[in-house]
Design brief:
Blueprint lengths: L10 E4 L1 E4 L2 E8 L16 H25 L4 H13 L2 H12 L4 H19 L1 H21 L14 E5 L4 H4 L7 E6 L7 H9 L3 E3 L12 E5 L4 E4 L3 H19 L12 E6 L2 H7 L6 E6 L13 H15 L3 E5 L27 H6 L1 H17 L4 E6 L5 H12 L5 E6 L2 H5 L1 H4 L5 E4 L1 H9 L17 H17 L3 E3 L7 H10 L3 E4 L4 H9 L3 H13 L3 H9 L3
Length: 558
């Protein structure tokens, strides 16, 4: 028999929606970590305690590997396997040994070593910073094992519920059952975190940065909107009816969203993917191809670079999946914020502004040449494919010209650049004098325009595509493309927001690439609005003084 549901006054919280959909149900709190053993003695035998910690970490790794084996091949399994590998990372174990030798007890040693390691990851920024959450999850599980207590995490659910947590570890998110988990609300987290991405892939509505949600008692009834970020505690009948109506309208729109995304203007809708498995899944959807293949997934967590043959096989698999449809491949986006063991250029005081993307490729031409050769071989192996190749982190005309020459020397016909820096946005016409196309990475463009780390959840409002300065940068890039007579697309998260998509089209963007799950809502939005309306939305958004007012100005025309 379920305990009676607590009744508290209605309260509305504003978070950040990261996975579309609406949901309502009772709250299930994710168990918090147990913390260090306050009564444990100092370490007097580092060797013995080190073995005990290693056993706990190996047990954590084994449990994560077992979870990975229980889910289908794809991003969810990849996250679990990567987290399992992190649990026995040599750097972590070395840090634990150091803490034990200083006299720290076993649980304190794990806590301290993890904090040191996590700080290093956060300093690197980007994808590496995201792994700090994985590391804390490992810490909390290992400490619980050392103390002989149950591991923290998602409780057994006896009824469909809304999960509430300070943050939710990717390892937990990857194994959630959508039949039992109606939605997710966290007090921390960011829009581009692993957890947000996995929730979207599972089709579970999710809201992050919902300040105050941890004050809600288990069993309390909560309604959420994973699109708007609204969280309503003890919603009224009117609230739940409004949510149901939103869901009905979205479902109705999606039901008629097949076919071309045009009203009086053609816009290509494309998928962002990372693997051949992703390509196989996305290729069956109603879309015009792939707008971003993130090739770095082939390179990370390796002691040596993948061979030309390995790369060519993967690229060919993606090309075959999409047939004659466009496939845009981004060359290796690694370096300062995403370090590779086999391409370490040394420590940098400001990694986010360091040698990443094309800058790494120019320092390690061998890596780029191997990748371009593999792409050329894949193109040759797949008849009728439409392969486009672009370089990340381009900032100058000289860099664009260098990359285009390099790619063309391998016989690649469509060569482009990414617009991720203000420099590239402001000089897009000049860059496109050399390149065939450009694609705007709105995540990094927002980060560099606003001088705000995209991995810092507290700075999320600054990173909104609705920021006046970010909109101005996108307009500059689109105008540069028009002047050069070359197409400019978007492959950042903004392209998957139906309202933002209308504004982007109004600014002159020719294609939008996004998570496959977001293509339906975006196509439905585009089919319902002509180009003149999109242009007026863009004009009003550009004229607004704040991000909130820019979004409201565009929304008023719906």
């Amino acid at each position: 028999m379920n305990a009676p549901t607590p009744r508290i006054a209605r309260q509305a919280l504003a978070g950040i929606g990261v996975s579309d959909g609406t949901a309502a149900g009772p709250v299930a709190l994710v168990a918090p970590p147990v913390g260090v053993d306050e009564g444990e003695p100092a370490c007097t035998d580092p060797g013995a305690d080190g073995q005990r910690v290693r056993a706990a970490l190996e047990a954590v790794a084994e449990s994560l590997r077992a979870r990975a084996a229980a889910v289908s091949v794809g991003p969810r399994r990849d996250v679990l396997e990567a987290t399992a590998a992190l649990a026995t990372d040599k750097a972590l174990l070395t840090g634990v040994d150091k803490q034990l030798r200083s006299g720290a007890g076993a649980t304190r040693a794990v806590h301290a070593a993890v904090e040191v390691y996590a700080a290093k990851l956060r300093a690197l920024g980007g994808a590496m910073a995201e792994r700090a959450t994985d590391l804390y999850d490992i810490r909390d599980r290992a400490v619980a094992r050392l103390r002989g207590l149950p591991e923290p995490g998602v409780p057994a659910l006896d009824r469909p519920s809304i999960l509430v947590a300070a943050d939710l570890a990717p390892a937990e998110t990857a194994t959630l059952d959508p039949a039992r988990v109606l939605g997710i609300v966290t007090e921390a987290g960011g829009a581009t975190s692993h957890t947000a991405i996995l929730a979207a892939q599972l089709g579970i509505p999710a809201v992050v940065q919902a300040k105050g949600i941890l004050g809600v008692a288990p069993g309390s009834f909560v309604a959420i909107d994973g699109t708007s970020g609204d969280v309503i505690i003890t919603p009224s009948d009117t609230d739940t009816a409004a949510l149901a109506e939103r869901s009905r309208r979205r479902a109705a729109a999606l039901a008629g969203s097949t076919g071309s995304a045009e009203h009086n203007h053609k816009v290509a809708l494309l998928a962002n993917i990372g693997t051949a498995t992703d390509a196989a899944a996305a290729s069956g959807l109603d879309l015009e191809g792939c707008g971003l293949l993130r090739t770095e997934f082939l390179f990370v967590d390796r002691e040596s670079a993948p061979t030309v043959t390995e790369q060519a096989e993967m690229y060919a698999g993606v090309l075959r999946a999409f047939g004659r449809r466009r496939v845009v491949v981004r060359t290796l986006d690694a370096g300062a914020d995403k370090p590779l063991r086999f391409a370490d250029l040394g420590a940098e005081p400001n990694p986010a502004l360091g040698r990443r993307g094309l800058r790494l490729s120019m320092a390690r031409e061998d890596l780029l040449d191997a990748q371009l050769l593999a792409l050329a071989q894949a193109r040759e192996a797949v008849d009728g494919c439409d392969l486009w190749v672009m370089a990340p982190m381009v900032a100058t005309q000289e860099e664009a010209e260098w990359f285009v020459r390099r790619a063309r020397s391998f016989g690649l016909p469509q060569v482009g650049v990414m617009v991720e820096t203000p420099a590239a946005a402001l000089t897009a016409e000049q860059l496109l004098g050399a390149a065939d196309f450009a694609s705007i990475g709105t995540n990094d463009l927002s980060q560099y325009t606003m001088a705000a780390d995209r991995m810092q959840g507290e700075l999320a409002p600054l990173l909104s595509v609705w920021q006046p300065a970010v909109l101005a940068m996108i307009r500059a890039a689109a105008e540069g493309g028009r002047a050069a007579g070359k197409p400019v697309g978007v492959c950042g998260e903004a392209g998957g927001d139906p309202l933002a998509a209308l504004v982007l089209v109004g600014l002159g963007v020719a294609s939008l690439s996004m998570a496959p799950s977001k293509i339906g809502p975006v196509r439905a939005a585009l089919r319902g609005h002509d180009l003149d309306t999109c242009r007026e939305m863009a004009r009003r958004a550009l004229a607004a003084p704040t991000a909130a007012q820019a979004r409201d100005a565009a929304h008023d025309l719906l």
